[in-house]
Write a structure and sequence with these properties.
Helices cover 69% and strands 3% of the residues. By secondary structure, the chain is mainly alpha-helical.
């Protein structure tokens, strides 16, 4: 079903690796303080996020709609096949996972779960508004926003050992 997205995304991985290497080399020559870490983040944030956005902004047949009741759509997944529930929940958790994992490594301003979660929530709100406003035949759901945000925060928590040493220790209360 999503081969038109998965194939180009997979073929783009070697390109992303090459771009990361070239960008890191360029930044090293310019004396950038963290050339490899920032090059990885600058290339892999969009490479890991854009395919998911492509999928969720692809028009679908149907009227679409809005679901503003938190956890309503998630509760409805209890009545579907486990594979369908896994794909729905897992896919939404992965939408902003690359952003969550790499944004704190890119900038100390985003070091911490709260800044990552707020950024992901803003991006997710924008995506849900686009789904509704562009009439894509999709349901703009508060549950999607919650799962997208949770996925970014979880990814930030998992990647914390990579970026946490960059956070200066706070002194005082």
């Amino acid at each position: 079903m999503w081969g038109h997205v998965i194939l180009p995304a997979a073929l783009g991985l070697p390109v992303a690796a090459l771009l990361t290497r070239l960008l890191a080399r360029h930044r090293t020559r310019r004396g950038h303080p963290a050339p490899i870490r920032t090059a990885v983040a600058d290339i892999l944030i969009p490479a890991g996020t854009l395919p998911w956005l492509w999928m969720i902004l692809t028009p679908q047949p149907g009227p679409g709609g809005v679901s503003l009741l938190p956890f309503h759509d998630l509760a409805a997944l209890a009545g579907v096949a486990p594979r369908t529930a896994f794909v729905q929940v897992g896919g939404n958790l992965l939408v902003f996972a690359a952003l969550g994992a790499l944004l704190p490594a890119r900038s100390a301003r985003f070091a911490g779960l709260a800044p990552v979660a707020l950024t992901a929530a803003g991006g997710s709100l924008l995506v849900e508004l686009l789904q509704y406003g562009l009439r894509l035949g999709r349901v703009a759901s508060v549950d999607d926003l919650l799962l997208n945000t949770a996925g970014a925060a979880l990814a930030a928590a998992v990647s914390r050992p990579w970026w946490a040493p960059r956070i200066p220790a706070r002194i005082g209360p």
